[in-house]
């Protein structure tokens, strides 16, 4: 069954800016139509639809009821979704051959157990915008999401392209952002509802599994990986700005580092793309800003007394600066630029080697994993005897190899291969822990000195250092001995 496609750009806007938004740019020249939309979302108690990648809702506006099934393929900002709509009269969903592939993907017995789980109550103001070379429908949604126990405010912008070039979407967003701060959204309303169901409070988000199409091409794999990394950053950025906590900061930084690794892994496809170089540089800047706070968080967790108090004070001051950077136009535009570039950058529209983006992703992944394993093996020889700077380079290579194995894991789905992948990943994680502790010994004193802290950081003794070096050496050997899940094993 072919999916009718909907292309829209989703953005978050502060509720206090909505009134001002209505008076800027093309919105000031057209009248918005207001409506109240109440959407009830259905699933089984075990969330079978959600786990399969679908959402099912009934939206009421006035006397009209529309049932919608969506197959979510969203990532960061730009949502492309299979969508099946129908008018109904009942308050309960009707699931048949006109309701998309639900019965095919999930099964009748499971679907018989669907029930109402949450709803969104939204005031939507819709604008029709003629941009000359494109026509949009722009909707400003304000309201809340409600479950039986919790509620959450919602304020977002949706811009749907009705005709014309998608480039015009991003031009419009940039012009609006000059007047009112906008942030790329990575969650649908349905996903926000599911999160509200499952979480009593906002929490940090670790990297989510990435599912790649085994028969897909290299370009689509890069997009899926990059959007997943952006999603990890944005979900944690939202929690970080609200709480200032250490863990969402750490996970936001991990998302940026994973994204920079993706740029590195797919570099052969990005040759001569100057925008790729610029975006990578901006990601490096933002990750470095978060890294200044992360270094302090690591020390705060390991110290006590007067030194800890001084570190906490330094952390508060440093995070104040980082908070301003996260709220800046530079960071907001970076996420918008990335979303646009992934959709229609030169690497897609004018690739220097057209065969590479269209190449088989499994072959690409196998060659790439072999190459990065060789680099890690070569640079990590004699790990315990390396200088601090060379050992840090080995640590960077280990992270790249680990992230690559996570990015491409879904391409190797057989049970035996999954077991090898799990063992390989465990060995990588243990090695990274040891290398991280060694790196903290080097970085810690410098961080204390950079912040002018009077208290001294106690340094581990020679025996402790030698113990960590031995463990790191053993960890390196374990990684090298581990079966290469992508090629069947061997060293």
Question: What is the gist of this entry?
Answer:
With 491 residues, this protein is of the alpha+beta class. The protein contains 16 helices and 9 strands.
CATH architectural designation of the domain at 1-200: Beta Barrel
Distance between the termini: 45 Å
- CATH class division of the domain at 1-200: Mainly Beta
Low-confidence stretches: 1-6
Strand-residue fraction?
15-25%
- Helices and strands, in order, run as EHEHEEEHHEEEHEHHHHHHHHHHH
Instruction: Give the rounded overall mean pLDDT.
Output: 91
Query: Order of strands across the biggest sheet?
Result: 1-5-4-3-2-6-7-8
- CATH level-3 fold name of the domain at 1-200: Hypothetical Protein Pfu-838710-001
Outline the biggest β-sheet: 8 strands, antiparallel, barrel
Q: Name the CATH superfamily classification of the domain at 1-200.
A: Hypothetical Protein Pfu-838710-001
User: What is the approximate shape?
Assistant: globular
| Beta strands, count | 9
Please give the share of residues in helix. Answer: 40-55%
Radius of gyration: 25 Å
How many individual helices?
16
What class would the helix/strand composition place it in?
A: alpha+beta
Description:
This protein is of the alpha+beta class and 491 residues long. Among the domains are: 1-200, Hypothetical Protein Pfu-838710-001 (Beta Barrel), CATH 2.40.320.10; 360-481, no CATH class. It contains 16 helices and 9 strands. The protein has an 8-stranded antiparallel beta barrel with strand order 1-5-4-3-2-6-7-8. A hairpin with a 3-residue loop joins strand 6 (115-130) and strand 7 (134-146). Helix 7 packs antiparallel against helix 8, helix 13 runs antiparallel to helix 14 (388-407) and helix 15 (415-450) runs antiparallel to helix 16. It is globular, with a radius of gyration of 25 Å. It starts with a strand and ends in a 10-residue tail after the last helix.
């Amino acid at each position: 069954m072919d999916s009718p496609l909907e292309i829209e750009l989703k953005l978050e806007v502060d509720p206090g800016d909505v009134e001002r938004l209505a008076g800027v740019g093309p919105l000031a020249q057209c009248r918005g139509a207001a409506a109240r939309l109440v959407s009830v979302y259905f699933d089984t108690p075990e969330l079978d639809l959600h786990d399969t990648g679908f959402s099912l809702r009934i939206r009421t506006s006035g006397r009209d009821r529309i049932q919608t099934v969506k197959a979510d393929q969203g990532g960061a900002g730009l949502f492309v979704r299979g969508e099946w709509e129908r008018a109904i009269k009942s308050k309960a969903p009707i699931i048949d051959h006109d309701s998309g592939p639900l019965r095919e993907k999930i099964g009748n017995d499971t679907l018989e157990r669907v029930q109402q789980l949450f709803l969104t109550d939204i005031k939507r103001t819709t604008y029709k915008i003629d941009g000359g070379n494109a026509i949009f429908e722009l909707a400003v949604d304000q309201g809340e999401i409600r479950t039986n126990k919790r509620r959450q405010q919602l304020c977002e912008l949706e811009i749907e392209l009705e005709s014309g070039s998608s480039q015009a979407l991003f031009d419009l967003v940039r012009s609006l952002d000059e007047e009112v701060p906008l942030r790329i959204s990575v969650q649908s309303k349905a996903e926000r509802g599911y999160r509200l169901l499952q979480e009593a409070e906002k929490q940090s988000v670790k990297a989510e599994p990435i599912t790649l199409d085994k028969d897909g091409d290299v370009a689509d794999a890069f997009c899926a990986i990059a959007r997943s990394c952006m999603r990890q950053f944005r979900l944690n950025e939202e929690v970080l700005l609200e709480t200032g906590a250490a863990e969402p900061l750490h996970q936001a930084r991990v998302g940026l580092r994973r994204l920079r690794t993706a740029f590195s892994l797919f570099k052969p496809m990005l040759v001569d793309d100057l925008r790729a170089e610029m975006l990578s540089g901006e990601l490096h800047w933002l990750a470095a800003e978060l890294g200044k706070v992360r270094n302090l968080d690591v020390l705060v967790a390991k110290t006590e007394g007067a030194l800890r108090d001084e570190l906490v004070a330094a952390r508060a001051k440093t995070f104040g600066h980082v908070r301003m950077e996260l709220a800046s136009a530079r960071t907001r535009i970076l996420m918008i630029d990335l979303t646009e570039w992934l959709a229609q950058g030169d690497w897609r529209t004018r690739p220097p080697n057209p065969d590479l983006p269209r190449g088989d992703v499994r072959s690409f992944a196998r060659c790439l994993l072999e190459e990065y394993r060789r680099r890690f093996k070569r640079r990590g020889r004699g790990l315990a005897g390396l200088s601090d700077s060379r050992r840090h380079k080995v640590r960077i290579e280990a992270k790249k190899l680990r992230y690559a194995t996570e990015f491409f894991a879904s391409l190797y789905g057989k049970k035996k291969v999954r077991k090898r992948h799990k063992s390989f990943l465990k060995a990588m994680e243990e090695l990274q822990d040891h290398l991280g502790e060694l790196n903290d010994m080097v970085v810690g004193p410098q961080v204390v000195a950079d912040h002018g802290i009077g208290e001294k950081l106690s340094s581990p003794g020679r025996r402790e250092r030698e113990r960590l070096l031995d463990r790191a050496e053993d960890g390196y050997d374990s990684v090298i001995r581990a079966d290469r899940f992508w090629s069947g094993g061997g060293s």
